[in-house]
Amino acid sequence: MSVIDPRIHQALDGELASEAVPAELRRAVAQLVAAADLLAAPLPGPAASLESRVMAEIRRPAPSRARRVMGWLVTPRAIILRVRPAWSVAFAAVVAALTLFTTGHDGPELAEHEGIAQFVGRFPEAQSVHAVGTFNDWRPGSIALEDQDHDGVWRATVVLPAGTYEYMFVVDGERWVPDHLAERLVADDFGRENSIVIVRAAPR
Amino acid sequence: MKRWVVLASAAFLAAPLAAQSLRGRLEGRIPSAAIPAVDSLIQFASQEGLPTEPLIQKALEGGAKHVAGPRIVAAVQVTLGQLRDARDLLVRAGDQPPVLPAEMTTVAWALRRGLPAPLVERVVAALARPPRAAAMHAVADLVAHRFDPDSAAGLIIEAVHDGVPRERLLDVSTAALQQVQRGHTRAEALAIVRRQLPNVPAPSKPTRGNVAGARRPASPAPP
């Protein structure tokens, strides 16, 4: 810690004339006097009194109702929620149950002896593809495959009673084509082969 | 006495109604000239206690494929012969007449899929209690993938005797096929699956997306 020369104190207190201050201390005394003058000077700008500021607030026109509502809506507020842990666990369980059981019932309800059959075929140039077989009395039109992303792969997912079915694809309403992805094929007694699909009852 | 009169009257009235309903399913779907012949073949089947739905389906298939009438009749006749063969095989293997229509259809399927009649008879005799459809298809799947027919039938019969539920037998054949895909020989694949019995991998469940996107076709016919 540096100790200030006592002659500087005396000069600042007016006990020592400035001419009597030694030359090596005059610069330090001058800097300290300037600093004291700076601190003593009033702050720049008008210094409004408390009364004038209060009166200005009173005179300002009140904001409209919509503006007040908007201000209330956008102003951040702290909300303190006190919950017993038992209630929060029960709430979480209810939310989980609702999520599981409501999303699990999407799509058609399957009866006890029903299952799902998927038909997939690649027909890049086709305009329409139908699955036709013993599941629909060989009636074209009831099971239309779709190519939603236009990549040439046609698909249909249908609910059928569990069992064994023979089928073929009918492309563009006239071309009969076996399902090349089906691993089970059987002669159709008309010179071609039918595909076989085995629909298993969906696990419950 | 009164009961017999009622039953006879019901049968007397039901037969023409059934024939009319059958003609209704065929009319407009197959050449009209072929309908009487197909109809009479179906009547034969009905009188012999054979299932008639496979015959109707064969006729409808021929009509949908724009096959000429005589060829449709011939194909229906072939199907009738397959059902008779199936019934005879089931009786030979030990089923008591009248044989269940579903079992006749199952055996006819197995024969059409290329299983030798003695092999089918062996499976029927080993699995005395119906239904045998899953067992037949499991054996046929393995044989279609060039497994030894006797060994394939042996695995499926053993699976049943070890307590694998009938509806899970297709999982047994699938497990053997998966072992082949992993690089095992067919004999090794059968041995591996046999060691794991009665445990078999669970079938893949339909995904939620598939179930959600599934729809019902208009008026599906029973298999």
Protein traits:
heterodimer; A: 204 residues; alpha+beta; Immunoglobulin-like; six-stranded antiparallel β-sheet; two-stranded antiparallel sheet; 5 helices; elongated; B: 223 residues; mainly alpha; 11 helices
For the sheet with most strands of chain A, the description reads: 6 strands, antiparallel
Number of helices of chain B: 11
**pLDDT averaged over residues of chain A:** 84
For the terminal residues of chain A, how far apart are their CA atoms?
87 Å
Supply the helix-strand structural class of chain A: alpha+beta
Largest chain interface and its two residue counts?
Answer: A-B, 43 and 45 residues
Element layout with pairings:
The complex is a heterodimer of chains A (204) and B (223).
Chain A: H1 6-12, H2 23-40, H3 50-59, H4 65-74, H5 85-103, E1 114-122, E2 129-133, E3 144-145, E4 153-161, E5 163-171, E6 175-177, E7 185-187, E8 193-199
Antiparallel strand pairs in A: 1-4, 2-3, 2-5, 5-6, 5-8, 7-8
Chain B: H1 2-26, H2 35-47, H3 53-64, H4 69-93, H5 101-112, H6 117-126, H7 133-144, H8 149-161, H9 169-181, H10 186-196, H11 208-213
Overview of this protein structure:
The complex is a heterodimer of chains A (204) and B (223). In chain A, strands 2, 3, 5, 6, 7 and 8 form a six-stranded antiparallel sheet that branches. Chain A has a two-stranded antiparallel ribbon with strand order 1-4. In chain A, 31% of the residues lie in helices and 23% in strands. Chain A has five helices and eight strands; from the N terminus they run αααααββββββββ. Among the domains of chain A are: 6-40; 114-199, Immunoglobulins (Immunoglobulin-like). The two termini of chain A are 87 Å apart. Chain A has helices at 6-12, 23-40, 50-59, 65-74, 85-103, and strands spanning 114-122, 129-133, 144-145, 153-161, 163-171, 175-177, 185-187, 193-199. Chain B is mostly helical. Chain B folds into two domains: 21-104, no CATH class; 113-203, no CATH class. In chain B, 68% of the residues lie in helices and 0% in strands. The chains are: A alpha+beta (204), B mainly alpha (223). The interface between A and B is large, with 43 and 45 residues.
